Amino acid sequence: AVVSTQSTGEKQRDEEIKLYANAKKKMAQLRKTREGELFQSFQDHQQAMVDHLAGLIKEQVDDEDSRIAKAVAERDAKRLLEEQNAKAKRANMQKEILKHRQESMRAQTLKMSEMEKDQALDLQRRIAEDQKYFQEQQERQACKKVEEDEIQGILCKQASEKSNKIQVEKHNELEGDKRSAQMVKEEEDEFQRYADAVIDLAKQRGRPVGPLIKAKNAGAGGGSGPIFEGKSNLRPSYQANDAYGNQLPRFANGAAKKTAQSSETNKRLGFVW
């Protein structure tokens, strides 16, 4: 009975152990299943987020591509329009240039024709003017020769009259010089007689006569140089520069100049004359 009881107890413990092991195994399976479900849920959520982001990125890329495509289309359209406008503008410009060139050529041709016509008329006018001028020059030269002959005659007459006048004036001047020289000679002779009388009287009275004899020398001026007969018998104080009796310049201080100025006189020193 004891053995049977022990055997029954062991069986119960084995059953409990077996139940515990099964329960633990089941719990481990449930945990693993739960973990798998959680991981799958996380994976699904992550995939959903990735898909969502991919969708957003795709939308942005598609929108950017659309904008780029639109911008490229607009740029191409604008460039095509500009090229068409530039082409039309060049065509119009070439057309205007051709038109202007044709008009310029017509105007140049007309201008050349008018210029040639004007040049021909101007040549004829200048030829006529040159012929008229040449004829007037011949007439002017003929008149000028007549005038020159008349002027030459007048000049010859004036020169002859001037020469005669100069000769008359020279003759009158010589005659005046002669009369002046005669008067000076008569005055000098009278002075010499007067001086001789004064010197004789001074000798009788015993007075010095040296200064009187020096003043009595012939020629006015009171100098000791030679007499210039052509200058009214002037006797300068020193050698003159020429035959006209003009004295050379002299240099002296103020006192000498003052003395010379105070002594300048036409009278003979030592005589009341």
Explain what this protein looks like in three dimensions.
By secondary structure, the protein is mostly helical. It contains 3 helices and no strands. It starts with a helix and ends in a 10-residue tail after the last helix.
Layout of secondary structure:
Blueprint: H1 2-204, H2 210-216, H3 254-263
Keywords:
273 residues; single chain; mainly alpha; elongated
Brief summary of the model shown:
The chain is mainly alpha-helical. The protein is built from three helices and no strands. The relative contact order is 0.03.
Based on secondary structure, the structural category is mainly alpha
Provide the helix percentage. over 70%
Please tally the helical runs, counting DSSP H or I stretches of 4 or more residues.
Answer: 3
Q: What's the total number of strands?
A: 0
Q: What general form does the structure show?
A: elongated
Q: Residue-averaged pLDDT, rounded?
A: 78
Low confidence ranges = 256-266
Biggest sheet descriptor: none
What is the radius of gyration? Answer: 77 Å
In what range is the share of β-strand residues? under 5%
One letter per element, helices H and strands E, the order comes to HHH
Tell me the span between the first and last alpha carbons. 223 Å
